[in-house]
């Protein structure tokens, strides 16, 4: 079996004035497939979660998810990643095994029910996460000073590196930037949480954590879990194209993370950490 593609060509029938008359065609549609994560440690095999994702960067997605959930916090704790050879041919590339070091924290079996996930919302209906402070997360250092004009430009810079969105119009994106606006990495996925997990998973596997000098821009809204993931990764500046939630703002303020939202058309609002923003906008 071949791996599922990130997009699929499917038949569509167009209607409306722009089509002239109704007409049949084929259209690129965002791929969405389940991915089950299974954890191996000391000979044990624990099914952790099944999430819906856009195929691609699956190892990064797994690493980022484990980082965000506090199961791993160092690259060395991930001893191996592989697709499941034991699964059926139809599922082989939809089951991923992660071999973990002995000090990684696999959840107790009684707590595994909280890891029920979808592409739309990440991990839904789970019990409240242990506080970030209990996991050893501290308020972030001062980090970089960012010109307001540069921050306002991040969505456009990210959009230039969203090839799958350009083909389908149906994916979220997360981008990692240097303080001078250079794109370091970008990831796309049908789920906004997945896109950020892929990005931070890449950083973990590349040995780049903490991301203490980085800016992150996401194509959607700023929810609590996206900010929680960013605190764990050590990101000091987070920009979102859409709205923030009250819990996201609370996390940003508690951990000194700069949160900018409604970043579009050359303007934005800063809900926390305004001291990192240098106002160079005219008018």
Description:
The chain is an alpha/beta fold and 283 residues long. It has a 6-stranded mixed sheet with strand order 11-10-12-13-14-15, with helices on both faces. Mean pLDDT is 89; it is low at 118-130. It has 2 domains: 33-123, Roll (Ubiquitin-like (UB roll)); 146-278, Cytidine Deaminase, domain 2. The radius of gyration is 20 Å and the shape is flat. 22% of the residues lie in helices and 31% in strands.
Please bin the fraction of helical residues: 10-25%
Q: What is the gyration radius calculated from CA atoms?
A: 20 Å
Distance between the termini: 58 Å
Elements, N to C (H/E):
EEEEHEEEEEHHEEHEHEHEEE
Largest sheet features: 6 strands, mixed
- Choose one word for the global shape: flat
Q: What's the quaternary structure here? A: single chain
Strand order of the largest sheet: 11-10-12-13-14-15
Tally of DSSP β-strands: 16
CATH topology of the largest domain: Cytidine Deaminase, domain 2
Stretches where pLDDT is under 50 for at least 5 consecutive residues are 118-130
Total helical segments: 6
Share in β-strands = 25-35%
CATH architecture of the largest domain: 3-Layer(aba) Sandwich
User: Number of domains in the coordinates?
Assistant: 2
CATH 4th-level superfamily of the largest domain: Cytidine Deaminase, domain 2
Mean pLDDT over the residues: 89
The CATH class of the largest domain, by name, is Alpha Beta
Helices and strands: which structural class? Answer: alpha/beta
């Amino acid at each position: 079996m071949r791996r599922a593609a990130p997009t699929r060509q499917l038949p569509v029938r167009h209607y409306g004035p722009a089509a002239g008359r109704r007409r049949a065609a084929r259209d690129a549609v965002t791929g969405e497939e389940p991915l089950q994560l299974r954890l191996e440690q000391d000979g044990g095999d624990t099914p952790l979660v099944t999430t819906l994702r856009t195929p691609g960067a699956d190892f990064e997605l797994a690493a980022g998810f484990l980082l965000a959930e506090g199961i791993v916090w160092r690259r060395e704790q991930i001893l191996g990643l592989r697709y499941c050879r034991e699964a059926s041919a139809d599922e082989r590339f939809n089951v991923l095994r992660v071999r973990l070091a002995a000090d990684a924290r696999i959840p107790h079996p009684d707590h595994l029910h909280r890891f029920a996930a979808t592409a739309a919302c990440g991990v839904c209906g789970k019990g409240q996460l242990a506080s970030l402070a209990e996991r050893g997360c501290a308020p972030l250092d001062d980090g970089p000073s960012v010109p307001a004009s540069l921050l306002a430009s991040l969505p456009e810079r990210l959009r230039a590196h969203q090839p799958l969105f350009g083909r389908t119009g149906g994916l979220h994106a997360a981008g990692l930037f240097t303080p001078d606006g250079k794109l370091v990495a970008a990831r796309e996925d049908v789920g906004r949480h997945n896109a950020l997990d892929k990005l931070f998973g890449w950083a973990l596997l590349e040995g780049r954590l903490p991301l203490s000098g980085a800016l992150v821009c996401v194509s959607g809204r700023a929810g609590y879990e996206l900010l929680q993931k960013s605190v764990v990764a050590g990101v000091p500046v987070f920009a979102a194209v859409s709205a923030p939630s009250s819990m996201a703002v609370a996390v940003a303020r508690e951990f000194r993370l700069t949160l900018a939202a409604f970043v579009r058309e050359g303007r934005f609002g800063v809900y926390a950490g305004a001291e990192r923003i240098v106002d160079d906008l005219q008018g």
